[in-house]
C-alpha cells in the first residue's frame, strides 16, 4: 500500500491532532489563568474530530448530511484556533463578526452540497474561509504590543501565513479538474495533506511555546518586581545596574539614593496601610519623571534608587531637584485624609569606567546622610572625578 495515499495522510493528521490535543489539554490545566487557551484546545479537538470524520466518510460512503456536518466541524476548528490566539493575546475579538462569518460559510456549504454539488467550488469556499481566518490570526499577532514572547508569536504568525498560502495554492492545484474527492490519488491531495500535517504540527507547537514563553516572562517579572510598588526590587536593581555599568564603560552616570523623611512617624500616626499607600505613590511619581533609559528600584524599606545613565554633573542636581519637588507637591489621598511626604536625596555622579556599583552606593549613602543631617527634604551631591586631583 502506498503510505502517502489520501486515507493514510488523513489518518496521520487525525492521529497527530489527537496526540497534540492531549498535550494541549495538559497546557490548558497548567496555564488556565490565560484567556484563549481553552478555546484553542477545543478547536484542536474539533480538528481531530473533523479529520476522523473525513476518514470514516471515505470508508463508509456516508450521506450528504454527514459531509455537511464534517465541513462545519472543520471550519469551527479553524475559527476556534484563531479566536483562541486572539483572546490569548488580549486582542479585541468581535464574536458577532465571527458568528456572521460562520453563518455565511454555512449557507455556502448548504447550497453547494444540496443544490449545486460541485467539488471545486465547495473547496474554494472552504479554502478561502480558512485562509481569511488565518489572515485574521496573523493580524491579531502582528498588532499585539506584548514583547515578552514576540519571537514565538511572530513565528506563529509565519506559520499561519504559510497555512493561508497553502490553502490558496490548493485552489490553483484543483483547477485541472483531476481531483474530485479527498481520496483521489492526485498531486493536489498528496501535497495538501502533507503540508497540512506539517502546518498543523508547527502551529500547535509554536502556540505551546508562546504560552510557555509568556509564563516564563511573567514568572521572571514576579521575581524581579517589588510586590507593593511594582518597581524593581533590590536584587533586580543591583543586577541591572551591574550589567549596565559593564556594557557602557565610557559615559557619566548618576545614581540617586532617596529616602522618605520621617516615614516611621507616618506609619505610627496613620498605620501601615497609609505607609504602604505613601510608598506606592512615591514610586508612581518617581516613575512618571523618568525616561525609558532610566531605572527605578526599591532599595529597601522607605529607600528608593534612581539610576540616570549618560547624565553628567551639570544635569544631575536639576534632575534630582525635580524629583524632590514633585514628591513634595504630590498629595496622597487615603480614606478621608490627605497625606503628603518629602524625601532626602543623595546624588553621586561618576564616569562608569572607574567605579563599581558598591562604590557608587557608598558615596550616594554619604550624600544622603548629609542631606538628612542638614535638615531633610533636600538634595546633596557628590562628584567622583575621572582621575585623582
Distance between the termini: 89 Å
Fold-level CATH name of the largest domain? Rhopdopsin 7-helix transmembrane proteins
Domain tally:
2
Q: Mean pLDDT, rounded to whole units?
A: 90
**Which CATH first-tier class of the largest domain would you pick?**
Mainly Alpha
Q: What is the number of beta strands?
A: 7
Helix and strand composition category: alpha+beta
> Biggest β-sheet, characterized?
5 strands, mixed
CATH architecture of the largest domain: Up-down Bundle
Radius of gyration: 31 Å
Helicity, as a percent range: 55-70%
Number of helices: 12
Secondary structure topology:
Blueprint (H helix, E strand, L loop, with lengths): L5 H25 L6 H24 L3 H25 L6 H20 L4 H25 L6 H24 L13 H38 L9 H14 L4 E9 L2 H8 L1 H17 L6 E6 L2 E6 L4 H17 L2 E3 L2 E3 L3 E9 L5 H17 L5 E5 L6
Parallel strand pairs: 6-7
Antiparallel strand pairs: 1-3, 1-6, 2-3, 4-5
Helix pairs in contact: 1-2, 1-7, 2-3, 3-4, 3-5, 4-5, 5-6, 6-7, 9-10
Amino acid at each position: 500500500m502506498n503510505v502517502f495515499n489520501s486515507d493514510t495522510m488523513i489518518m496521520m493528521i487525525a492521529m497527530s491532532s489527537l496526540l497534540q490535543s492531549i498535550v494541549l489539554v495538559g497546557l490548558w490545566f497548567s496555564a488556565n489563568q490565560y484567556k484563549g487557551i481553552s478555546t484553542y484546545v477545543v478547536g484542536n479537538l474539533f480538528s481531530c474530530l473533523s479529520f476522523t470524520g473525513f476518514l470514516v466518510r471515505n470508508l463508509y460512503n456516508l450521506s450528504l448530511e454527514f459531509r455537511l456536518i464534517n465541513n462545519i466541524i472543520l471550519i469551527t476548528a479553524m475559527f476556534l484556533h484563531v479566536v483562541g490566539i486572539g483572546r490569548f493575546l488580549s486582542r479585541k475579538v468581535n464574536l458577532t463578526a465571527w458568528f456572521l462569518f460562520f453563518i455565511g460559510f454555512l449557507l455556502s456549504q448548504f447550497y453547494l452540497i444540496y443544490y449545486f454539488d460541485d467539488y471545486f467550488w465547495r473547496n474554494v469556499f472552504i479554502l478561502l474561509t480558512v485562509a481569511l481566518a488565518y489572515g485574521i490570526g496573523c493580524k491579531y499577532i502582528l498588532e499585539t504590543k506584548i514583547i515578552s514572547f514576540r519571537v514565538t508569536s511572530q513565528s506563529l504568525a509565519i506559520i499561519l501565513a504559510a497555512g493561508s498560502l497553502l490553502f490558496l495554492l490548493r485552489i490553483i492545484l484543483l483547477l485541472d479538474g483531476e481531483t474530485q474527492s479527498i481520496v483521489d490519488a492526485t498531486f493536489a491531495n498528496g501535497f495538501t495533506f502533507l503540508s497540512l500535517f506539517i502546518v498543523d504540527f508547527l502551529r500547535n507547537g509554536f502556540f505551546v511555546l508562546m504560552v510557555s514563553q509568556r509564563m516564563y516572562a511573567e514568572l521572571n517579572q514576579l521575581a524581579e518586581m517589588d510586590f507593593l510598588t511594582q518597581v524593581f526590587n533590590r536584587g533586580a536593581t543591583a543586577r541591572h545596574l551591574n550589567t549596565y555599568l559593564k556594557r557602557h564603560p565610557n559615559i557619566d552616570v548618576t545614581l540617586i539614593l532617596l529616602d522618605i523623611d520621617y516615614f516611621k512617624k507616618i506609619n505610627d500616626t496613620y498605620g501601615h496601610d497609609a505607609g504602604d499607600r505613601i510608598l506606592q505613590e512615591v514610586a508612581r511619581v518617581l516613575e512618571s519623571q523618568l525616561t525609558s533609559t532610566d531605572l527605578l528600584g526599591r532599595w529597601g524599606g522607605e529607600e528608593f534608587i534612581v539610576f540616570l545613565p549618560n547624565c553628567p554633573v551639570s544635569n544631575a542636581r536639576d534632575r534630582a531637584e525635580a524629583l524632590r519637588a514633585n514628591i513634595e507637591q504630590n498629595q496622597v489621598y487615603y480614606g478621608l485624609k490627605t497625606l503628603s511626604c518629602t524625601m532626602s536625596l543623595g546624588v553621586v555622579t561618576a564616569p562608569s569606567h572607574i567605579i563599581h556599583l558598591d562604590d557608587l552606593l557608598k558615596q550616594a549613602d554619604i550624600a544622603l546622610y548629609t542631606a538628612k543631617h542638614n535638615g531633610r527634604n533636600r538634595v546633596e551631591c557628590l562628584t567622583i572625578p575621572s582621575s585623582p586631583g
